[in-house]
Amino acid sequence: MARLTIRNICKSFGSGFAVNDVSLDVENGELVCLLGPSGSGKSTLLRMIGGFERPSAGEILIDGRDITHLPPERRPTGMVFQSHALWTHWTVFDNIAFGLKLRRLPRADIREKVEQALAMVGLADYGQRMTTQLSGGQQQRVALARSLVLEPKILLLDEPFASLDQHLRERLRDEVKDIQSRLGITTLFVTHGQDEALALADRIVVMRDGVMEQVAPPDVIYRAPQTEFVAGFIGSMNFLRADVEDGVARHDDLTLPLPIADGPVILGIRPEAMSLTPSERPRAGKVHRLIDFGTHKLIDIDLTDGTRIKCMAGPDARAPRGLRVELGVSAFHAFRDGRQVYQTTSDLEATERSMSHA
What we know:
Elements: E1 4-13, E2 16-26, E3 31-35, H1 42-50, E4 57-62, E5 65-66, E6 77-80, H2 92-102, H3 107-120, H4 136-148, E7 154-158, H5 166-183, E8 186-191, H6 194-200, E9 203-208, E10 211-216, H7 218-223, H8 228-233, E11 238-245, E12 248-251, E13 254-257, E14 263-269, E15 274-278, E16 285-292, E17 297-302, E18 308-313, E19 324-329, E20 332-336, E21 339-344, H9 349-355
Helix pairs in contact: 2-3, 2-4, 3-4
């Protein structure tokens, strides 16, 4: 196991920054996901840790040792790329054994370590196959085994499942989590998939435009987003523009108690925190469509200001298209200038209903 320390790392390209003043500590055995949209700097940060990009400023330390300027082959890191990067004219065994051969290990030791690595990733009988004979998922397992066989202190994974189908991606991420937990290896995992990050991470680093927006465990990221960007990027979030006056936030279709200073505000409400009741008001929200996911239903509602929001309901819910509805809210967030200024997890539905016609 190892501890990774990143101090004020920057990477500039011309006049702009791909990564700008990022500092992060990753503890022994921790799995941290770098999450963000394309261009957020997450892969550039990972490549700097692996030695494939040179930082413009800052330091990278592993167990207190400065590795900032070491080449990749001299770092105690193993990197798995999205593209697999396997040699197609070699067998699976030879691909995995390559790094061990460079270290001039005895043949018997190489064979033992490669066989152990193959067994670890579920490919015990695949050593003599050519990589071109493998499926995409099997090739990614070989790439993972090739990194793990070198026993790195830090494992780096750069969107390794992005090219795979949904079911295979879910199965492989579960396998990677099991292997990582069993080995206790410190791991950084780059992804733009929120579901992947929520399923894998001990902590999530949400990145945007080269900076860290928030660093926290998955449940905190989801339930207590610090910024409007994080709230919208993790999970599904409804955003409504409202005006606060005398401790009350007012929208054409919704009124909520909000003890902050008067002025405009953005309300953030999760679909599962909303409920619907039929309404006879001619200007109430109107059901646009209902999507059945089996375990639950998602109802699209068109509000009077043109906003479309989503409400989660049980599997037996009924909401015909065109039905007028009133909105109930059990929890919400409030944002100003992109930052969260208020959050509640208390049940406000009864209060909201009593205020809805105020």
